[in-house]
Specification:
It is a single chain. This protein is mainly alpha-helical and 146 residues long. It has one domain. Helices cover 58% and strands 0% of the residues. It has 6 helices and no strands. It is elongated.
């Protein structure tokens, strides 16, 4: 493998790693919906104790809320999706979908087959298109990941 091809492979792996970290950050932010929060009520302590005595269990463990540095890195990485040309919007969707990684388990939220179902293509084609989308980003970044 030539040096340029190896450099491109390293740059592509680095871009994928940054996008996956951005996806994990996004999912850890605990955003429910855009806009203001709805009306809420906080149960008083005696009511919470009653709930616990009747078998109420707390929510499962969640990832820590990301800090400002992680959110800034996420914004930068997701900004790279704009380096994929507008007429190749399916590539953008594929790259964005595969960047969503569960913050605790590290597993992709969408398998290749599920992404293929969403875009109406085979999972093998989706893998090729993902690589093309990443190549667009690497090219737009000048061969590196800035």
């Amino acid at each position: 493998m030539s040096g340029a091809a190896c450099h491109d492979l390293n740059a592509a792996e680095s871009v994928v790693a940054r996008l996956e970290a951005a996806g994990a950050t996004l999912l850890a932010m605990r955003l429910r919906a855009a806009g203001p929060a709805g009306v809420r009520s906080s149960m008083p302590e005696p009511v919470r104790e009653a709930c616990e005595s009747y078998g109420w269990v707390p929510e499962p463990i969640r990832a820590a809320i990301p800090d400002a540095e992680a959110i800034t890195a996420m914004d930068e990485a997701f900004g790279w999706l704009a380096l994929i040309p507008p007429h190749r919007r399916v590539l953008r969707r594929i790259v964005a979908a595969r960047s969503l990684v569960h913050p605790l388990s590290g597993r992709h939220c969408m398998t290749w087959r599920r992404v293929g179902d969403v875009v109406g293509a085979s999972h093998t084609a989706v893998r090729v298109w993902h690589a093309q989308g990443i190549a667009c980003i690497v090219l737009g970044l000048g061969g590196g990941h800035g």
